[in-house]
Structures are given as structure tokens and as C-alpha cells.
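Troubleshooting log. The previous run stalled partway through. Resubmitting the same two chains, unchanged.
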Amino acid sequence: MPARLTSPSSAPVRQSSVRAHNLALVLHTVANSTDRPSRAAVAAITGLTRATVSALVDDLVAGGLLTEVEPPPRTGAGRPAVGLAVSAAGPAGLGLEINVDYLAACVVDLTGTVRQRFAEHADQRPADPGQALTMLGRLAARARLAAEADGLIVAGAALAVPGLVADDGLVRVAPNLGWQDVDAPALLGAVPELADLPITVDNEANLAALGELRVTGGDPTFLYVSGEVGIGAGLVLGGELYRGVRGWSGEIGHVTVFPDGRPCRCGARGCLEQYAGQEALAGDEPLAAAALGIALSAVVNLLDVPVIVLGGAYAPLFATLRPGIEEELARRVLTSGMAPVVLRPATLGPDAAMRGAADTVIRAVRDDPAAWLRR
Amino acid sequence: MPARLTSPSSAPVRQSSVRAHNLALVLHTVANSTDRPSRAAVAAITGLTRATVSALVDDLVAGGLLTEVEPPPRTGAGRPAVGLAVSAAGPAGLGLEINVDYLAACVVDLTGTVRQRFAEHADQRPADPGQALTMLGRLAARARLAAEADGLIVAGAALAVPGLVADDGLVRVAPNLGWQDVDAPALLGAVPELADLPITVDNEANLAALGELRVTGGDPTFLYVSGEVGIGAGLVLGGELYRGVRGWSGEIGHVTVFPDGRPCRCGARGCLEQYAGQEALAGDEPLAAAALGIALSAVVNLLDVPVIVLGGAYAPLFATLRPGIEEELARRVLTSGMAPVVLRPATLGPDAAMRGAADTVIRAVRDDPAAWLRR
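Second attempt completed without errors. Output:
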């Protein structure tokens, strides 16, 4: 019904959506500046009028998203204008991770700085999902309280799990935790100190890959491999996480490397996980690097991915694993003679998934500051 | 220099680009109509004025891209308007394929109908690239002459090869043909009857996947597997062919299925090609379906691709191969219990690559009819 689009009642909607767009534009402009731009500089970059920029900046400062700082040194004449920077004392993201042998929580502020970090090492497999998520919830509550004592406001939480996650946050299956159809947001939200927070859930390798992409910048196309007891992968193609049609991509731990090999928890035989998972790494058969090399060669032959990032437990073992992996890549990738594959350790190390999780919260605030200001 | 954008000299450029856009819009509108729309119907669909549509249609009819036909039957009063259809007597695409044991050429008209088809079965491996491409060029010349005797005008040629192709049409490597750095467009263009044609080259599995996507419509995300002496794959994600960063994706034939298995021409051991390539299919060890199932399980675990299309020599063997492949998929794909993978034979059968090649020529004309009219 096109008539509705031009009716007077829609005008305020459109004005508020323009304002929301411009608030995000101003916030991004300041965040992406290498110096501390003045209101006039933001106006020049965005093409908005100085009056519009000033009004938007005032709202962002009042809402704790921007802060006024010393201007950058200038050599010309005239009084230097006040500079702007993203606030380190406003909204923050709570990043959570549960894995087979640890629980962890961190708080990251709007500038991307990790302000709190808590971790507990304990085997989660005997615990039922409710117990495990209650333990994690208590750790998260400690991180939140510490951050809020430090002047931050936690805007939301995101949880990284080693499993397949549906759009609504339901963990469909996490084989190494023994979870099936676990409503993780509800169980976490049952911890009283978290009851008011929006909570999202995603696969840990996906979040780690997003962390690697966004927090560190870098290559637009790579495979992130996360070595834990299970092995997951996050595939970034042209700057976008490729989730697959149903969100189930990246299950590299269940790629077959030896068809008649060791039985896997998933029911198959010879899965990569049985040769290069954390438990196999602790054993005495040195198959991890070769098995990884065989599975990664399949990825490169199929997808022509030029960069592979090793994260999780693989990050600290990078130097040990590298020669064996590179030997298999050189032998098994059809194009290895034309252009070798670049192998590197995760920049964020073992915290990548949790950092990526916190970053999704921060990014949501930065992408829609109007929603934060309306809260 | 923004000033140049508003200078009077740029106005004709912009006008001609608007006309080019509108010519394509009108041609696509007619092509995508299930009936034979009148000029007035095209104006109503596109939002262009009837005068503009009439002028554009006149140019497209004069250029052999559209034709005037009987109007669809109508029940209302008034004289029925003349209908429009894509012309079956205008520009056409020459699709070529070279593989280890055959050469083939087809001509497809603008409506997508195959008008000529020539194939020769002969082992190309002893031949050097120049000899092989001269033989193919002669076959292509016969197809072109037959098509032109039938009133068509061949607009260009596209060649499908079982190998890695650079952007400029150079075949970097085609292991099963024994080719390395072969300038296929130049060698084909040396055949006098083809000297005037634009010639492009692409990987045969990529072209077959595009053919499957465009010619038959259907699933937006699938893996097309082309079984020849070598095995290639074309990966379509969300309606787009995923070529990889350097255009080298889809080398499923060199995915390892048995790490210490049979030696492959590529230098590795245990490549899929050695168990499910055409020569292995002709042998007595019935490993083809299991090997395919192992490699395809890796694809699904990594990419969450819901549909696999078997083409080339696999299309006629589909019923034989299916149970063995499905058994491995059920066992090895982590999510097989949640949603089984759909396996189906290629709709275009063994001609898919050649049809896809011809379609790229047709599509180029349909996407930029102005360039064709200017020729």
C-alpha cells in the first residue's frame, strides 16, 4: 500500500531513523579516526552540518558513548577545538565461554579494551547443562560486578559454546559437553545478577573467527581453526563469516582423516578430532600435525582459502605443529606449488572466542547507538 | 575531481548508460515473462514510459534480440496488442568442452535452446594442447557454420576445461590433460573460422555448476560434482559461484580419502580421483561410492551444503552410486540426523559444462544488449 508511505504519520518514523543512522555514522567516524577529531572535523568527514553534528555528539556524550578529550596538538593559529573519543566508561560487552575443561568471562569496553577477565579450569563433562551454566553465570556475575564498580554499564552478554547453535540461542548439540537441545540463554538468565541482560549464544569457532576478523583486522578470507577437546572452525570469506545454510558450517573436527580409524563420540570413525583434539595432543602418538594437515588440505583444495589461523589450544603449540601441517599442505594441496598457504597462530590466543563474543555486544551498541540511548 | 561529474561533456555518457540499463531491463522483462507481453505490459512492469519502451523495443527487434509474436489470447474488448518474445534467430552462444576422452561443441540460442551439438570421443592425452585445441576448433567451426546456416549469429565462445584457469583464460594446469600454462583462447582463435570470436575459458565444474544454477533454476546453495577422469566441483553459495580467492576452488578430486593410498598424478597419495575417477569406476574395486561419500561428508561438515548434484560421468551412474554415498553421509556428517543431505543427478546430464559455457555467452548479451547493438 504505497499510500501509507506518504501519510503524515510516517514522517516521525523516518526522521527518527535518519537520526539513528546519523548517530551511528558519527560514532563510527570517531571510532575509526586515528586522532581525536573535533566536532568540525566530524562534520567535514560525514558531510553533515556542524549544528547537526554538535547535537548528535551532545547526545552521544550524555549517553556515555563518546567523551570529550584534549584536542590533538595543532600548529596553526586559533583556539584548538575539543577532541572526541569513544568512551571507556560507558556501555561494555560481557563475553562468556564454556568449554570441556574451562569456564571464562570477560568484560570489554566500547574502545575494545578488556577490563575484566575471569577463568576457571574444571572438567564440565560430568556436570549437567544447568549446573555448568549456573557456575558460568556466577563467574559472569563477578565479572559484571567488577566492571560496574569500575564505572562501566554491561549492555549484554554473548556466550561461546563448542556446538551447533540455532538462531534463538538453543544449543542443538555440543557433543563434547554431552549437551542436546539446551536453552542456554534461559539457564544463564536464571542467575539473578544476569536476569536483566540480553544474552545471545553462538558457536565458539564462529565467534573466535569474528574476533580475529574484527578485533585484529587483517585478512578478509581465512579459516580459523579452534583446537579444544573438540575442534571447530570459523570460515571467513571476503570479510563475512560463512555460517552455512542452517548455521552448521565449520565442523572440521568431524572431517574424516583415516576412514577406518579411531571411533569418535559422533558415531563415525577416523574424525580429525580423534587425532588432533586436546586429548589426542596429550597422548603419545604424534599424529596431530599430520591429521590437521590432511584435513586442512581438503579445505584448501575445496575453497582456495589462502590463510589458516590456528587458535584455542593450537595457538601456544603453533611452532610445534607448523612443520607437520605444512608438509601435508605442500604434498596434498593441488596449487601449493603455485602459491603456498599461509599458516599463523591466532592473534587473540586462547581468548579469541570470548573476545569475539564480547565484541558482538559492543558492535551491536556501536551499530545502533540510538537503541542504547533510548533504553 | 567532482567538477568533472557536472561538466556538460559527461551528460551524453550518462544518457547512453541509462539507455544501456533500460535496454537490459526491457530484454530481461520479456525473457522472464511467462506470457508474451505487449509493449504496454513491459511499460507497466518496468515503470518506464510507453514511448521509451517502444523506442527500446524497436532497437531490440532491429538488433535481432526480440521478436514480435502473436499476442496472448485475451477476453476483454479492444484490439489485442502485439506480443514480444526473446528471439530464437539472433545472437547465440558457442559452448565448447575438452576433456580427457572427448571434445564437444554446442550452439545455444538466446532463448536457451540447444540448436547444434557435436561431440567426438577420442583420448586427448597423447595430443599436445595445440593439436587438441585445433581439433576442437574444427568441431566448433562446424557447429558455428551449421548454426549460421540456420539464421543465428554466434556472439562468442566459451571453453570448459578440466583444470585451473587464470582470469585471462590461460590454463595454468590441467593435470589429466598434461597441460601447463596453455593459452587456450589463442590456440582456438588460430582456427580461421573462429578468429573473429571473443573466446573465454573457465573450469568445467564451475561452468557446469553455473549451468545447473541458471539453466535449470533450483537450489541456491549446492555442490556440483563433475566426474570425469579427473573430478572437479563447483560450489554455489547463496546463488553465486564461489571461485575462491585465486579462482582455484572446487578441487575435490584431490581431497584425501585414504592418506596412505594410491599415488595420484598430482604427487599426493589417496586422492579421491584415484578411487572415484572414471578410470577407477571402470576397475573392479567398488570403492567409488564410499570414497565419494567420505569426501562429500567433509564438504558438508565444513560448509553445511544441503544439496549435492552429481554430474558428468556420475549422472548416468547415479542410481548405482547413491546408496554407498548416502551410507557414508549418514555415518560421517555430524548433522545428518538433524537434516539429511539431498543427493541428485545433474539435470543437464553430461552436457552441463558445455551448456553452462554457452550460457555465459548468452548471458553476456542479455546483460548488456547495448554492447551487442553497437557491434
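Takeaways: The radius of gyration of chain A is 23 Å. The CA atoms of residues 300 and 333 of chain A lie 7 Å apart.
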